[in-house]
Specification:
Length: 541
């Protein structure tokens, strides 16, 4: 039995078929139903002329259909492609062209954009519309309704797959145009088993054929995971931590009905479904959830959150103060803060009540190294800043971009590493201190300043809710450190600058303060530095 998403999930469905696999709102599919519906989707893909390595774009909000369309792609050895549901016409057209998409599954509320670009994509063989507006029929000429597609096909027979099949995740475009990061399916499936099984207290199965037996035992003991995905499935944090890893352990994946973070829905769903694991994205998700817990308490109410064992986050800073606040309200949980990106895993930090928590400090993976600009490894404890290199599971490259692949995925002393762009320091005890992305470094008066360090200092100032720091062109300093922040009416430029200077060297303090209603972030909570810079430049003239 090959180590492959589809093959593993099929084996799980065979042993725990009556147990819940996916839930969105009031609709729950058992593992048997989930596997059957995905097999019918796979048959439809094949009937449309798609085959192994065909790219199937998922332009969808979170929901059961996202998981079913993805599972169906894995079943027929296709490659599901995650598409940001915020993309407008030009962005959508770029990604569909860049990925060589042959099929597109989309929500009907996004159909107007699909209709405007579909005619420019002669490679599209199949359009599938998932109804989320309550309308009858489909909105785009030539499209088929998702439920009609399932009803109109018998399940595709199971097939033998290859562990070398390509799995691909598109980056969010925070470091340039979105790029498809390619992995060998067998390798990434095995890697995720190595992460997921220890998280539920189980040994990592030695072979794919062992997984179903382990999962059956977990369900018999009533220890199966219920994973609530707070982050979007279209990004790696939500998809990998919230869905793919729990599924490999036979877990139940629960998605929310709201299209933006509703902390009260998060808490209500935890109570209703008995969620054991909750996936969020750093402070931007944790702070509203904490506030919602407090709001309920102020009303003399309380959500039952006793089922939660672990809260997981990745992709953005999760500050120590916010972690401690969450542990005060959820004292039984472990907080898992993963340092990684679409291009690889670099380290993690686990926190629990009674432990000291720190911002941007991680236990580095054994395969993680730091190198200087001449590819010399940085000695722990030296204080030198270097580029973080992730070893171990390293992507095959970027899809259709050999130049960027060669720059990001490189061999040093016979070992292949991924260089996602993060800068950091390595302490004598091996602790990895993350400083920020090299591409975002601000050069002010000859001093290099990492925005993330200043952002965390700003967010510690009383009244500040959120902040991004950018470098605005400045005649005297080259670039001026500029804080784009949101907060209460008591926050002033003077209080922010003074607060930062109490924590950091004076040259790192913002020279400009721009107060906005909402700091720009992507749906997954990641910083939108381009939008923040535009706001700053507009405000400063």
């Amino acid at each position: 039995m090959e180590m492959h998403w589809a093959t593993v999930w099929e084996s799980i469905a065979d042993v725990v078929g009556d147990r819940p696999a996916v839930t969105n709102g009031t609709v729950t599919r058992s593992w048997a139903e989930y596997e059957d519906r995905a097999a019918r989707v796979a048959a439809a893909y094949s009937a449309a002329g798609l085959g192994p390595d065909s790219k199937i774009a998922l332009y969808l909000y979170n929901g059961n259909e996202y998981m079913e369309a993805q599972f169906g792609a894995f079943k027929m050895r296709g490659v599901p492609v995650n598409v940001n549901y915020r993309y407008l016409d030009n962005e959508l057209l770029y990604l569909l062209e860049n990925s060589d998409a042959e099929a597109l599954v989309y929500h009907s509320s996004l159909a107007d954009r699909v209709a405007r670009v579909a005619g420019s994509l002669p490679g599209l063989r199949l359009l599938v519309e998932v109804d989320d507006t309550g309308s009858s029929g489909v909105s785009v000429e030539g499209a088929v309704a998702f439920e009609d597609l399932i009803a109109g096909h018998d399940p595709m027979p199971r097939i033998t797959r290859e562990e070398s099949d390509i799995y691909m995740l598109y980056t969010g475009g925070t470091t340039g145009m979105p790029k498809g990061v390619m992995y060998a399916t067998g390798e990434i499936t095995q890697f995720f088993c190595g992460l997921g099984f220890p998280a539920i207290g189980l040994p990592v199965p030695e072979a794919a054929s062992d997984i179903a037996g382990v999962v059956a035992g977990v369900h018999e003991r009533g220890e199966s995971a219920v994973s609530l995905v707070g982050a979007p499935l279209m990004h790696g944090t939500g998809l990998w931590l919230g869905a793919l890893i729990p599924h490999l352990g036979g877990g139940h994946v629960v998605t929310l009905t709201s299209r933006s973070l509703d902390p009260h829905e998060v808490l209500g769903t935890i109570s209703l479904r008995g969620a054991t694991h909750v996936t969020i994205v750093g402070d931007s998700f944790a702070k509203p959830i904490i506030s919602a817990i407090d709001e309920a308490a102020d009303r003399g109410e309380a959500y039952d959150l006793s089922s939660v064992k672990m809260v997981l986050s990745s992709g953005v800073m999760w500050t120590s103060e916010v972690k401690e606040a969450m542990l005060d309200r959820l004292p039984q949980v472990f907080l898992y803060d993963a340092m990684g990106s679409s291009e690889g895993s670099m380290g993690s930090q686990i926190s629990m009540r009674g432990m000291s928590t720190e911002t941007a400090r991680f236990s580095a993976n054994p395969t993680t190294k730091l190198f200087d600009e001449n590819d010399r490894e940085i000695t722990p404890g030296s204080g030198d800043i270097g580029r973080v290199a992730a070893g171990g599971l390293v992507p095959l490259g970027y899809f259709k971009d050999p130049e960027k692949s060669a720059a990001t995925f490189r061999v040093i002393d016979g070992v292949r590493y991924s260089f996602p762009g993060d800068m950091g320091q390595i302490l004598e005890d091996g602790t990895l201190v993350l400083l920020g992305r090299g591409s975002q470094v601000i050069n002010s008066g000859g001093e290099k300043i990492f925005p993330e360090e200043v952002e965390e200092a700003v967010k510690r100032v009383d009244g500040v809710v959120d902040c991004l720091v950018v470098g605005v062109d400045d005649e005297k300093f080259g670039q001026a450190v500029t804080a784009v922040l949101s907060g209460s009416s008591e926050v002033t430029a003077e209080s922010v600058v003074a607060g930062v200077k109490d924590q950091l060297a004076g040259y790192k303090a913002p020279r400009n303060i721009v107060i906005v209603e909402t700091v720009p972030r992507a749906p997954n909570g990641k910083a939108d530095y381009r939008a923040a810079l535009e706001l700053a430049e507009t405000a400063l003239g």
